[in-house]
Design brief:
two-stranded antiparallel sheet; 2 domains; single chain; flat; alpha+beta
Amino acid sequence: MRKQKKSLISRMQEPKDQRRPRRRRKPDFLGALRHEWDSFWNFVDGNLKMKLILILSALLLIGSVTKVISDQIFYQKMDIVDAFAATEAAYVESKLQITADYGTAFLTEHDKQSLISYLAGALGVRMDGEIEYRETEVSQIYSYTKKARQASTTIKAITLREDTSRTYLYVELSIYQDNAFDILNYRDIILDTLDDMGVTQAETTLQLLGAYDGKTSVEEWDKLADQMIGKLSGKIIYENRAEELYTIYAYSNLLAEYIMVDNKKINMQVAVRYEEDNNRTVVYLATPIIRGEW
């Protein structure tokens, strides 16, 4: 016996939980999208101006993507030493400064001395002297300095009085006659060691000094400066090319760190001066800027 089909009214009178769910037709989004796409290309096909706009947009996009990729590739291979090597300076002195935020954990005097010893050991510095302690109006500082014939190393653990729960670590390394640019190896050692110690924030300053016998012209200074900045595809932000105060600030996408000055990024500084007492011309290249006197 064939089951009689219920009328629409009888189905409506049934409790909601007994009604047979009605099938809804799913909207054809893919078909609608295909239709819009075909309409767009039909419009473009008959519009020369729109074709030109699309071609130019595609070229700009390809250029932007290519630049980002190339910058990332070159960044892995280049540093300021690559730019500085082009100067062919007969004498090179390198200086590295790293400041790291060690965090807010409470540290005793012994803890801070142990941190200094650990960093010294990582650098291969044999500690044969005492760790000094001094207080100023703004800080409490534990420090150790080791001077050798071709290098000088200073390591500090610093606590600011305004934030006694936070400790900063500071490492300064100078290498004299660093024509092989060994400073880069030590930079990597320090940063890797800090990473092993759980440090997540570290600021790095790298400075190179080259010297030439005698006095050279400002035109030669310009050539050296432009050569180094150009090697790193730098853009000049500020410059003063007078002999009395010759310095240039620039920004390069190939260097990782930078500082902000008047809402502008800076991560390169070039400076040149003549030392009359030593009868030599000195050239500086630093990232992000020169720290201290020059």
